[in-house]
Amino acid sequence: MEKTARAELIAALVTDKYSGFTDGDEPILEAASDERLERFRAASDAARSAVNEHARLETDNRNTAARLKVAEDKLKAGEAPMTEDEFILKAPTSIKGVLEAAKAAADAEHAALVSVLKECGKHSEEDLKKMKTPELQVLAQYAGVRVPDFSGKGVPAPRNAQDKTSYAPPDGYALALKAQQPQSKAVN
């Protein structure tokens, strides 16, 4: 090995933190043979690649742990029971319509119970509004008050027999049979 290449290799080994040599080790390295210096350089390169590989694996491990944490959090959130508001937000529009109609009916019943019971005078309107509908229903039963409920009631629809209007589909053979009946009687 040339002197300049050997000096550069010794300088590189002294300044390389992976070689294990520091300033002041130049006399030891100058006394070593060329093959020995090459083994030191190879060992230094191997140590550098091992440290880099270790750092890469640690980064991958941290990233995997972070992804696992996010997945666990999503799993916990998915397993947690939904509140009614969350369910309504995620529900399809057809179910939202039914839920809104049921809520409107429940609110109307609550308001009707409050208006009837406030006239009894035992509780104030604010106290009655704070109570839930089943509690108000019990109070109404004790007070002997009935809240009229017209849900499901309507005007009866007229039947076919009363109206003499037939909604049956037409019979395609009836006209042909009627047309042939008078002819067959005339032949006999």
Termini separation comes to 137 Å
Radius of gyration equals: 47 Å
User: How would you state the average pLDDT, rounded?
Assistant: 83
Shape: elongated
Spell out the key features of this protein.
2 domains; single chain; 0% strand; mainly alpha; 72% helix; 188 residues
How would you describe what is shown here?
- With 188 residues, the protein is mainly α.
- The chain has two domains: 3-77; 85-143.
- Helix content is 72%, strand content 0%.
- The chain is elongated, with a radius of gyration of 47 Å.
- The N and C termini lie far apart (137 Å).
Write the layout of secondary structure elements.
Blueprint: H1 3-15, H2 26-31, H3 34-79, H4 84-90, H5 93-118, H6 125-130, H7 133-143, H8 160-163, H9 172-187
Helix pairs in contact: 1-3, 5-7
